[in-house]
Amino acid sequence: MRVLAINVRSGGSRSTAAALIARALGHRPQTLVLSEFRDNTTGAFLRRELARAGYAEQAATEGHRGNGVLIASTMAFSATRNPFGLADDEYPNAAIEARFSALRVFGVYLPGQDRKRPHLRCLIAIAQRYNERKIDALCIGDMNSGRNETDIELNLGRKRLADEFSTADLYAELERYWTEAWLHLHPGVREFSWYPFRKEPPASRRNGWRIDKAFVSQSLLPSVLDARYDHGFRLEGLTDHSGLIVDLCI
Asked: Which of 112, 116, 146, 248 is the most exposed place for a label (fewest CB within 10 A)?
């Protein structure tokens, strides 16, 4: 099973949505997770075009103006919106849990700064429970968090941190229970999945962040075949994030 996650940037742009879908489908994933999905006209276009391409099984955060998540698949699944049971003022549209026959997928777009602390605490609790029950689970999308020392380009080679994730402590706790797939397969490698849109040439933009991640449960880890980034989404200006592709032997 191949899962592709991509942040479409503020709901996506109608001018680039078709090209973004085409690039995503070029990887032939069975399941897509779109972060920063919005329930608007561009969101409706994304859903319609994906359905036409065979991704008719869909679940999205609906009925609100802000950023959320869309999961679209060629495979049948049942969905739980707001799986963490958060209140309306706690960004409940940050996650969807899709339950496939042999796998559970959490598609996420975690909000910025400390606003994601409730979500990470819930993920940690779920990670512990799913490990105990040996449930195969994948959490994938824009985590908006990471390791201060390695996931912020400005910090590399510095004795003092130039910037920090406000939730790095909870991120580290999550790593105690679930394994980050890309890092597991690429130890010591440095890549960054998000750069802000700017006019300066790339050489002067050493401010990348690796915030698009995939975590797998203990029982699923042996089934991880590959995890890699497609930076073309970002370099072609389709969005400000790179895509993340994870291959599983499911």
From this structure: 112
Complete domains list, the chain, with CATH:
2-248 (3.60.10.10)
Nearest of 221, 53, 199, 40 to residue 127 by alpha carbon: 221
Task: Indicate the pairing of strand 224-230 with strand 243-248.
Answer: antiparallel
Beta bridge partners of 69: 35
pTM for this entry: 0.95
Q: How many CB atoms lie within 10 A of CB 122?
A: 18
Structure token pair of residue 225 = 């075949």
**Could you tell me if 208 and 240 are in contact, meaning their C-beta atoms sit under 8 angstroms apart?**
no
Which residues fall within 8 angstroms of residue 213, CB to CB, at 6 or more apart?
Answer: 140, 141, 143, 146, 180, 182, 244
Cα gap 76→43, rounded to integer Å: 21
Distance CA 1, CA 90 (A): 32
**Cα dihedral sign for 178, 181, 187, 189?**
negative
Query: How many CA atoms lie less than 13 Å away from 151 in the CB half-sphere?
Result: 22
Candidates 173, 100, 96; CA nearest to 140 is 96
DSSP state letter for 18: H
